[in-house]
Amino acid sequence: MSTFNSAAIEEFNGGVWVFCEQRQGVMMPTSFELISEGRKLADELGSKLYGILLGDKVEGIAKELGGYGADGVYVCESPLLKDYTTDAYTKVICDVIEEYKPEVMLIGATNIGRDLGPRCAARLHTGLCADCTHLDIDVPKYKDFLRSASTLAPNMIDSIKEDDRNLKMTRPAFGGHLMATIICPRFRPQMSTVRPGVMQTQAFNEETAAKTVLEKVSVELSEADIHVDVKEVVKSAKKVVDLIGADVVVAVGRGTSADPKRGLEIAEELADVLGGVVGGSRATIDSGWLSADHQVGQTGKTVHPKVYIALGISGAIQHKAGMQ
User: Fold this and answer.
1) φ and ψ of 56, to 5 deg
2) Non-local CB neighbours of 40 within 8 Å, separated by 6+ positions
């Protein structure tokens, strides 16, 4: 850390990076979403896009990241990285960032990402915008976004400087009542955790996947660096509903409280007919009618189905934040 200076922003020309989350050798869908979004940001910056992949014997799944837009992948392998621990992953990622100095670092706002992102940002002495739903670098594109998604006066939007090359990180604030855009102009890398399901995954390209450059990174990690010992990983036997990837969502709210059991039966029947899944507002989850993996909203999951049917839902801003 003694030679690393996050305020020396002119030294950070290592491109746009995406932390590519894998679990037990399987790449998580959020990684493909962020690689697709990272491709756009890298093009706007005129730089390269790299994934950073940690694990044990995971090189075989790295190439597929190129099919979604990655120019290359930094592969960090060690038996000590087989299971996720905050200590190990933070040390390795920070070591690689200090060496290659990326300008932007994106992490999925999953359970792992929400734990990993703040720890890395603190150790690197840089900023972090959490739970983002929109990212921009190119100012004209950012202005178009503001014109369609904000209530700012046109003169305020037009006054934004065209030469601003900072990453504009937009996220819900004040319970979803407004959207705030955060920048990190004084430190690098510019770090963001991105809400799963809000970025569109581009089509897989076999040709670009074959051209992806894999760079194996020498990992300096010992058991003394890790203060948690993972004894066993136990998978839940229940099937978790895939709200994020669903084309049809039938959601229920507190308005079905007169007969919640019958309301849920109707929602499930309708979802089956339409080939969709059942979601719910926070009230239904807090009441125990549905499990937490069904929740749509700011504190739940972000969805982008082709059809969304709301039954007995008031439409509170926190719930609508899951679709904006």
Assistant:
1) -120, 120
2) none
Neighbours of 242 (CB within 10 A): 11
Residue 138, SS3 per DSSP: coil
- Which residues is 255 bridged to in the sheet? none
Residue closest to 279 by CA, chosen among 291, 261, 287: 291
The yes-or-no verdict on residue 2 having pLDDT over 60 is: no
pLDDT digits 0-9 by tens, 45-91? 999 999 999 999 999 999 999 999 999 999 999 999 999 999 999 99
Distance from the first to the final alpha carbon of the chain: 40
**Alpha carbon distance 55, 31 (integer Å):** 14
What's the pLDDT tens digit per position in 188-238?
A: 999 999 988 888 899 999 888 888 999 999 999 998 999 888 888 877 655
Query: What are 241's two structure tokens?
Result: 């509903």
Which amino acid, residue 36? S
CB of 44 closer than 8 Å to CB of 132: no
Encoding tokens for residue 278?
A: 């059942």
**b (16+ CB within 10 A) / e for 116-132:** bbbbbbebbebbbbbbb
Tell me, what amino acid is at 166?
Answer: N
Give CA–CA dist 310/319, Å, rounded.
11
User: Residue 302 is which amino acid?
Assistant: T
CB of 290 closer than 8 Å to CB of 263: no
Q: What separation in angstroms does the CA of 172 have from each of 65, 110, 117, 151?
A: 29, 17, 18, 14
Q: What pairing do the DSSP bridges indicate for beta strands 168-173 and 134-136?
A: antiparallel
Which of 238, 235, 237 lies closest to 290 in space, CA to CA?
238
Instruction: Round to whole Å and give the CA distance between 284 and 319.
Output: 12
| DSSP structure string for 152-195 | --HHHHHTS-TT--S-EEEEEETTTTEEEEE---SSSSEEEEE-
Do residues 307 and 248 lie in contact, with contact meaning Cβ atoms separated by under 8 Å? yes
How far, in Å, CA of 31 to CA of 18, rounded? 8
CA distances from 308 to 198, 234, 283, 294, 322 (A): 15, 34, 18, 14, 12
Do 67 and 206 meet the contact criterion of CB atoms below 8 Å apart? yes
